[in-house]
Design brief:
With 77 residues, the protein is mainly α. The chain has four helices and no strands.
């Protein structure tokens, strides 16, 4: 896959912030973002069907606060 980025996104994806988070390459960072997005989809599905989709996915404890702030938006509130 080849994804063109504007100068601002390219600088962000190859900059110190990405390296400081432990990613050696921009490709590692993009893979991480895709995995995280997939995990968020699983969390949304779990919440939308009131847990009947099976056990909840694992995610970092610090995500609970952000998740709690986002839930009303997912439910259309």
């Amino acid at each position: 896959m080849n994804v063109p980025l504007d100068d601002d996104l390219w600088a962000f994806a190859t900059g110190d912030r990405v390296r400081s988070r432990g990613f050696a390459t921009p490709a590692e960072y993009v893979r991480h973002l895709i995995r995280r997005d997939r995990e968020l989809d699983r969390i949304r599905l779990f919440l939308e069907v009131d847990g009947s989709a099976g056990p909840p996915p694992r995610f970092p404890r610090e995500s609970f606060q952000r998740l709690a702030e986002m839930v009303p938006r997912w439910r259309g509130s």
